[in-house]
Amino acid sequence: MNEWRGRALGSRTVSCDETRPILYALAIGADASDLDLVFEDRLRVLPTFALTLAQWAPDALGSAGAFDARTAVHGSQRLRVLEPLPRSGSVEMTAYVSEVWDKGSAAVFDVTVESRYFEATWSLFAPGCGGFGGERGPSARRRPETEPDATPLTVTTDPNQAALYRLLGDRHHLHIDPDAAKAAGMPRPIMHGLCTLAATTLPLARSLGAHPADLTELEGRFAAPVFPGDVLQMTTWNTTHFEAAVEGRTVISSAKAHFA
Protein backbone atom coordinates (compact mmCIF):
# COMPACT_ATOMS: atom_id res chain seq x y z
CA MET A 1 0.00 0.00 0.00
CA ASN A 2 2.97 2.32 0.46
CA GLU A 3 3.11 2.73 -3.32
CA TRP A 4 -0.09 4.76 -3.14
CA ARG A 5 1.38 7.41 -0.83
CA GLY A 6 2.00 10.57 -2.82
CA ARG A 7 0.13 9.25 -5.86
CA ALA A 8 -1.20 12.10 -8.01
CA LEU A 9 -4.91 11.87 -8.77
CA GLY A 10 -4.92 14.58 -11.40
CA SER A 11 -6.47 18.00 -11.72
CA ARG A 12 -9.96 19.12 -12.53
CA THR A 13 -11.78 22.36 -13.20
CA VAL A 14 -15.43 22.46 -12.13
CA SER A 15 -17.75 25.22 -13.31
CA CYS A 16 -21.18 26.17 -12.05
CA ASP A 17 -23.57 29.09 -11.85
CA GLU A 18 -25.34 30.46 -8.76
CA THR A 19 -27.98 27.73 -8.86
CA ARG A 20 -25.72 25.04 -7.48
CA PRO A 21 -24.54 26.78 -4.26
CA ILE A 22 -28.17 27.76 -3.60
CA LEU A 23 -29.27 24.14 -4.03
CA TYR A 24 -26.44 23.14 -1.73
CA ALA A 25 -27.54 25.53 1.02
CA LEU A 26 -31.09 24.16 0.85
CA ALA A 27 -29.78 20.57 0.85
CA ILE A 28 -27.88 21.01 4.12
CA GLY A 29 -30.81 22.65 5.88
CA ALA A 30 -30.85 26.37 5.09
CA ASP A 31 -34.29 27.96 5.22
CA ALA A 32 -35.98 30.02 2.51
CA SER A 33 -35.72 32.98 4.89
CA ASP A 34 -31.90 32.75 4.84
CA LEU A 35 -31.77 35.09 1.89
CA ASP A 36 -28.00 35.48 1.83
CA LEU A 37 -27.73 31.72 1.31
CA VAL A 38 -30.62 31.07 -1.09
CA PHE A 39 -31.24 34.33 -2.98
CA GLU A 40 -28.86 35.17 -5.82
CA ASP A 41 -29.05 38.94 -5.21
CA ARG A 42 -27.52 38.52 -1.74
CA LEU A 43 -25.74 35.20 -2.11
CA ARG A 44 -22.81 34.15 0.06
CA VAL A 45 -21.46 30.71 -0.80
CA LEU A 46 -21.08 28.27 2.08
CA PRO A 47 -17.45 27.09 2.30
CA THR A 48 -18.51 23.45 2.70
CA PHE A 49 -19.92 23.63 -0.83
CA ALA A 50 -16.30 23.08 -1.88
CA LEU A 51 -16.57 19.47 -0.75
CA THR A 52 -19.15 18.74 -3.44
CA LEU A 53 -16.89 20.27 -6.08
CA ALA A 54 -14.00 18.04 -5.00
CA GLN A 55 -15.88 14.75 -4.61
CA TRP A 56 -14.25 13.49 -7.81
CA ALA A 57 -10.93 13.01 -6.02
CA PRO A 58 -11.79 10.23 -3.53
CA ASP A 59 -13.87 8.62 -6.26
CA ALA A 60 -10.82 8.66 -8.53
CA LEU A 61 -8.74 6.79 -5.98
CA GLY A 62 -11.35 4.05 -5.70
CA SER A 63 -11.56 3.79 -9.49
CA ALA A 64 -7.76 3.47 -9.66
CA GLY A 65 -7.96 0.24 -7.66
CA ALA A 66 -6.45 1.29 -4.34
CA PHE A 67 -9.29 -0.44 -2.45
CA ASP A 68 -12.67 -2.06 -2.93
CA ALA A 69 -15.03 0.87 -3.38
CA ARG A 70 -17.96 -1.35 -2.33
CA THR A 71 -16.63 -1.80 1.21
CA ALA A 72 -14.58 1.36 1.85
CA VAL A 73 -16.23 4.00 4.02
CA HIS A 74 -15.69 7.69 4.60
CA GLY A 75 -14.01 7.85 8.00
CA SER A 76 -13.42 11.56 8.53
CA GLN A 77 -13.20 14.91 6.78
CA ARG A 78 -11.10 18.04 7.10
CA LEU A 79 -11.57 21.41 5.40
CA ARG A 80 -9.43 24.54 5.57
CA VAL A 81 -10.79 27.65 3.90
CA LEU A 82 -8.33 29.94 2.11
CA GLU A 83 -10.60 32.33 0.19
CA PRO A 84 -14.36 32.71 -0.30
CA LEU A 85 -15.69 30.56 -3.12
CA PRO A 86 -16.99 32.44 -6.17
CA ARG A 87 -20.76 32.70 -6.61
CA SER A 88 -20.35 31.38 -10.15
CA GLY A 89 -17.49 30.49 -12.45
CA SER A 90 -14.72 27.89 -12.33
CA VAL A 91 -12.72 26.29 -9.52
CA GLU A 92 -9.44 24.57 -10.37
CA MET A 93 -8.33 21.70 -8.14
CA THR A 94 -5.45 19.24 -7.84
CA ALA A 95 -5.61 16.02 -5.80
CA TYR A 96 -3.16 13.45 -4.46
CA VAL A 97 -2.88 10.70 -1.84
CA SER A 98 -1.30 12.51 1.09
CA GLU A 99 -0.98 9.49 3.43
CA VAL A 100 -1.72 5.78 3.78
CA TRP A 101 -2.03 4.50 7.35
CA ASP A 102 -1.84 0.85 8.39
CA LYS A 103 -4.62 0.01 10.86
CA GLY A 104 -3.92 -3.73 10.87
CA SER A 105 -7.05 -5.22 9.34
CA ALA A 106 -7.63 -2.08 7.26
CA ALA A 107 -5.85 0.88 5.71
CA VAL A 108 -6.80 4.54 5.84
CA PHE A 109 -6.14 6.54 2.69
CA ASP A 110 -5.93 10.32 3.04
CA VAL A 111 -6.93 12.08 -0.18
CA THR A 112 -6.08 15.79 -0.26
CA VAL A 113 -7.54 18.28 -2.70
CA GLU A 114 -5.88 21.68 -3.10
CA SER A 115 -7.29 24.85 -4.64
CA ARG A 116 -6.72 28.59 -4.27
CA TYR A 117 -9.98 28.59 -2.28
CA PHE A 118 -9.56 25.61 0.06
CA GLU A 119 -7.66 22.53 1.12
CA ALA A 120 -9.72 19.44 1.92
CA THR A 121 -8.77 15.93 3.04
CA TRP A 122 -10.92 12.81 2.90
CA SER A 123 -9.88 9.91 5.16
CA LEU A 124 -11.15 6.68 3.62
CA PHE A 125 -11.27 3.50 5.73
CA ALA A 126 -10.59 0.47 3.52
CA PRO A 127 -11.12 -2.96 5.13
CA GLY A 128 -8.75 -5.71 4.08
CA CYS A 129 -6.00 -3.34 2.94
CA GLY A 130 -3.95 -3.17 6.13
CA GLY A 131 -1.09 -5.28 7.46
CA PHE A 132 1.52 -3.91 5.07
CA GLY A 133 3.92 -2.75 7.77
CA GLY A 134 3.17 0.96 7.60
CA GLU A 135 2.70 3.47 10.40
CA ARG A 136 -0.60 3.29 12.26
CA GLY A 137 -1.13 7.03 12.16
CA PRO A 138 -2.69 9.40 14.67
CA SER A 139 -5.55 8.37 16.92
CA ALA A 140 -8.87 10.17 16.90
CA ARG A 141 -8.93 13.33 19.00
CA ARG A 142 -10.34 12.73 22.46
CA ARG A 143 -13.28 14.75 23.68
CA PRO A 144 -12.31 17.71 25.89
CA GLU A 145 -11.97 16.91 29.58
CA THR A 146 -13.79 20.09 30.57
CA GLU A 147 -17.55 20.28 31.07
CA PRO A 148 -19.52 20.84 27.85
CA ASP A 149 -21.35 24.08 27.16
CA ALA A 150 -24.63 24.42 29.02
CA THR A 151 -26.91 24.76 26.00
CA PRO A 152 -26.98 21.85 23.52
CA LEU A 153 -27.70 22.52 19.86
CA THR A 154 -30.12 20.63 17.64
CA VAL A 155 -30.08 19.68 13.95
CA THR A 156 -33.34 18.29 12.58
CA THR A 157 -32.80 16.50 9.29
CA ASP A 158 -35.52 16.25 6.67
CA PRO A 159 -36.91 12.92 5.40
CA ASN A 160 -36.11 14.06 1.84
CA GLN A 161 -32.67 15.50 2.62
CA ALA A 162 -30.51 12.70 1.20
CA ALA A 163 -32.55 12.65 -2.00
CA LEU A 164 -31.92 16.39 -2.40
CA TYR A 165 -28.23 16.33 -1.45
CA ARG A 166 -27.38 13.59 -3.95
CA LEU A 167 -28.26 15.98 -6.78
CA LEU A 168 -24.98 17.77 -5.95
CA GLY A 169 -22.89 14.88 -7.25
CA ASP A 170 -22.69 11.99 -4.77
CA ARG A 171 -25.09 9.56 -6.47
CA HIS A 172 -24.21 6.49 -4.41
CA HIS A 173 -27.28 4.24 -4.37
CA LEU A 174 -26.95 3.78 -0.61
CA HIS A 175 -28.50 7.22 -0.13
CA ILE A 176 -31.65 6.66 -2.20
CA ASP A 177 -32.32 2.97 -2.96
CA PRO A 178 -33.73 0.83 -0.12
CA ASP A 179 -32.37 -2.34 -1.76
CA ALA A 180 -28.86 -0.89 -1.95
CA ALA A 181 -29.10 0.20 1.68
CA LYS A 182 -30.16 -3.30 2.79
CA ALA A 183 -27.30 -4.84 0.81
CA ALA A 184 -24.95 -2.60 2.82
CA GLY A 185 -26.52 -3.72 6.10
CA MET A 186 -28.66 -0.62 6.62
CA PRO A 187 -32.41 -0.75 7.27
CA ARG A 188 -33.04 2.13 4.87
CA PRO A 189 -31.09 4.80 2.88
CA ILE A 190 -28.72 6.92 4.94
CA MET A 191 -27.65 10.55 4.93
CA HIS A 192 -24.42 11.58 3.24
CA GLY A 193 -21.82 12.13 5.95
CA LEU A 194 -20.73 15.41 4.36
CA CYS A 195 -24.32 16.64 4.37
CA THR A 196 -24.68 15.87 8.07
CA LEU A 197 -21.34 17.46 8.96
CA ALA A 198 -22.10 20.61 6.96
CA ALA A 199 -25.57 20.84 8.53
CA THR A 200 -24.00 21.15 11.98
CA THR A 201 -22.24 24.36 10.96
CA LEU A 202 -25.55 26.26 10.66
CA PRO A 203 -26.58 26.07 14.35
CA LEU A 204 -22.93 26.39 15.40
CA ALA A 205 -22.63 29.68 13.55
CA ARG A 206 -25.92 30.94 15.02
CA SER A 207 -24.78 30.06 18.54
CA LEU A 208 -21.66 32.17 18.03
CA GLY A 209 -23.39 35.09 16.36
CA ALA A 210 -21.32 34.29 13.25
CA HIS A 211 -22.34 33.81 9.65
CA PRO A 212 -22.00 30.22 8.38
CA ALA A 213 -20.23 31.53 5.27
CA ASP A 214 -17.45 32.78 7.59
CA LEU A 215 -16.36 29.20 8.36
CA THR A 216 -12.56 28.93 8.23
CA GLU A 217 -11.95 25.37 9.41
CA LEU A 218 -14.01 22.21 9.87
CA GLU A 219 -13.29 18.61 10.68
CA GLY A 220 -15.13 15.63 12.03
CA ARG A 221 -15.18 11.85 12.23
CA PHE A 222 -18.18 9.86 11.01
CA ALA A 223 -18.88 7.50 13.91
CA ALA A 224 -22.24 6.03 12.86
CA PRO A 225 -24.84 6.49 10.10
CA VAL A 226 -27.56 9.13 10.20
CA PHE A 227 -30.95 8.51 8.61
CA PRO A 228 -33.05 11.20 6.91
CA GLY A 229 -35.48 12.54 9.47
CA ASP A 230 -33.15 11.96 12.45
CA VAL A 231 -32.74 14.69 15.06
CA LEU A 232 -29.13 15.31 16.08
CA GLN A 233 -28.27 16.60 19.53
CA MET A 234 -24.97 18.48 19.46
CA THR A 235 -22.72 18.74 22.49
CA THR A 236 -20.21 21.59 22.27
CA TRP A 237 -17.13 22.62 24.20
CA ASN A 238 -16.17 26.29 24.03
CA THR A 239 -18.48 26.40 20.99
CA THR A 240 -15.69 25.10 18.72
CA HIS A 241 -15.26 21.41 19.59
CA PHE A 242 -18.35 19.28 19.27
CA GLU A 243 -20.00 15.89 18.93
CA ALA A 244 -23.41 14.95 17.57
CA ALA A 245 -25.64 12.09 18.65
CA VAL A 246 -28.98 10.58 17.69
CA GLU A 247 -30.91 9.11 20.62
CA GLY A 248 -27.68 8.81 22.60
CA ARG A 249 -25.71 7.17 19.76
CA THR A 250 -22.70 9.26 18.68
CA VAL A 251 -22.76 9.89 14.93
CA ILE A 252 -20.11 12.62 14.60
CA SER A 253 -17.10 12.72 16.93
CA SER A 254 -13.72 14.43 17.23
CA ALA A 255 -15.21 17.46 15.50
CA LYS A 256 -14.33 21.12 15.52
CA ALA A 257 -15.32 24.23 13.60
CA HIS A 258 -13.90 27.76 13.53
CA PHE A 259 -15.49 30.91 12.13
CA ALA A 260 -13.83 34.19 11.24
In oligomeric terms, what are we looking at?
A: single chain
- SSE string, helices as H and strands as E: EHHHHEEEEEHHHEEEE
Strand adjacency order, main sheet = 1-3-4-5-2-7-10-9-8-6
CATH superfamily: Hotdog Thioesterase
Helix content: 10-25%
Largest sheet: 10 strands, antiparallel
Spatial extent as radius of gyration: 18 Å
Concise structural overview:
By secondary structure, the chain is of the alpha+beta class.
Annotation keywords:
single chain; 20% helix; alpha+beta; Thiol Ester Dehydrase, Chain A; 260 residues; 10 strands
Describe this structure in words.
This protein is α+β, with helices and mostly antiparallel strands. The chain has one domain: Thiol Ester Dehydrase, Chain A (Roll), CATH 3.10.129.10. Helices cover 20% and strands 33% of the residues. The chain is built from seven helices and ten strands. The chain has helices at residues 19-27, 35-38, 50-53, 56-63, 161-165, 178-183, 193-208, and strands at residues 8-16, 73-81, 89-102, 106-114, 118-127, 153-156, 215-222, 231-237, 241-246, 249-259. It has a ten-stranded antiparallel sheet. Strand 9 and strand 10 form a beta hairpin. The mean pLDDT is 94.
Structural topology:
Layout: E1 8-16, H1 19-27, H2 35-38, H3 50-53, H4 56-63, E2 73-81, E3 89-102, E4 106-114, E5 118-127, E6 153-156, H5 161-165, H6 178-183, H7 193-208, E7 215-222, E8 231-237, E9 241-246, E10 249-259
Antiparallel strand pairs: 1-3, 2-5, 2-7, 3-4, 4-5, 6-8, 7-10, 8-9, 9-10
